[in-house]
Write a structure and sequence with these properties.
9 helices; YacF-like; 2 domains; 251 residues; globular; 3-stranded antiparallel beta sheet
């Protein structure tokens, strides 16, 4: 297929927990990308922060993530008795997983310190209102934005530190999940592909950028289908082509 530099990877979760992990990973990356903001784009950071807090408050993130990491640890432990495996590398990875599990156990409740922060709570309440964070609505926020960049950066670092354990856990877990599936080439007719009963939690679909297509996935971990749609197709109508070449990894 085409050079990897021209490829786009789409990821689709096939269960609710994986959907949550992908959303958390996305929001944390948004926070990291926008943490050095100016007075004109500060809301990009605070919108992502508010959404992350909402996910954390509505789900048992620590318990569910600990279970999934423990499951990954058990899968890796099986390889310790396989001949030819780099046991030193594997033991280092298992040690890292054990360390993260310990940190998740003893860490304070996720987002608790931010829920007690008066400024963040004031901003969260106003974000649902169009234009609700104007200077006359939130004079305390306006004053905070006038502080020096160093002052604001230090405050933001403290806020983000409360999610450092979650960030490390999600990053390592998703790395292991993605590495569990290898890309294989497929060709589907009529822009439609149905899986041959391969159980998966995450689909990774790689397709050439110049095709101008994106996948629509339906189904669950045991059975799913993929339909490819053109970016400029009105009302998501099927594109007119005989076949679509793509790569798929079941993770």
């Amino acid at each position: 297929m085409e050079n990897a530099k021209t490829m786009v990877i789409f990821e689709h979760p096939l269960n609710e927990k994986m959907r949550t992990w992908l959303r958390i990973e996305f929001l944390i990356k948004q926070l990291e990308q926008n943490k050095h903001f100016s007075t004109h784009n500060a809301l990009l950071f605070f919108h992502s922060l508010a959404e992350l807090l909402e996910i954390v408050e509505r789900n048992d993130i620590r318990g569910d993530l600990s279970k999934d990491i423990e499951e990954q640890k058990q899968k890796l432990s099986v390889w310790l008795n396989v001949q030819g495996v780099d046991t030193s590398l594997l033991n280092a990875l298992l040690g890292k997983l054990n360390s993260i599990l310990s940190e998740l156990t003893i860490a304070p409740k996720l987002g608790q310190s931010l829920k007690e922060d008066r400024l963040i709570m004031a901003i969260r309440k106003r974000l649902a209102i169009p234009g609700g964070c104007c200077s006359f609505d939130l004079p305390s926020f306006y004053l905070w934005l006038q502080q020096t960049q160093t002052y604001r950066d230090n405050q933001v670092s403290l806020w983000l530190n409360s999610f450092s354990t979650l960030y490390q856990a999600i990053s390592l877990y998703m790395q292991l999940v993605r590495q569990s599936g290898n890309f294989k080439s497929f060709t589907c007719n009529n822009n439609f592909y149905q899986n041959p009963n391969d159980v998966a939690h995450l689909l990774r679909i790689r397709i050439s950028l110049d095709k101008g297509l994106y996948p629509q996935v339906s189904g669950n971990a045991a059975r799913y289908a993929i339909r490819f749609v053109g970016l400029d197709s009105p009302n998501d109508q099927k594109i007119e082509t005989n076949c679509v070449e793509f790569e798929l990894a079941n993770c």
